[in-house]
Write a structure and sequence with these properties.
It is built from 2 helices and 5 strands. Strands 4-3-2-1-5 form a 5-stranded antiparallel β-sheet, with no helix packed on it. The protein is globular, with a radius of gyration of 18 Å. By secondary structure, the protein is an alpha+beta fold. 31% of the residues lie in helices and 32% in strands. Strand 3 and strand 4 form a beta hairpin.
Length: 118
Amino acid sequence: MPMKLLQEAEGHVVTMELKNGDVYCGNLVESEDNWNCQLESVIATTKKRKICNLSQLFVRGRKVRFVIVPSMLKHAPMFINSNTKIGGTQDYLLQTIRLLHLTRYSQRMVADQNKLYE
């Protein structure tokens, strides 16, 4: 499903972080099955926080750490599954995200409580 989500993001502004720490934000023109991506109107930020503008950029897929896609894609047709119960896959994904946030929150709370008793 992640590749399909990346393909749905074509034509939208995405943010990519590479494994070397560089961050690129631009319009996703094309993406391939191996995560190779072509971006236009790119704002590049290096690991040392140097910012520059690029008209075009090609990113090799194996160098990508993660991609941030527009939040509007959570309503994409691929998240709607007619074979699931009410709420569908989209609700399942949202519940999973909420569970991850709650887990992180509870871990912070436990850590804070342990600090109080030290």
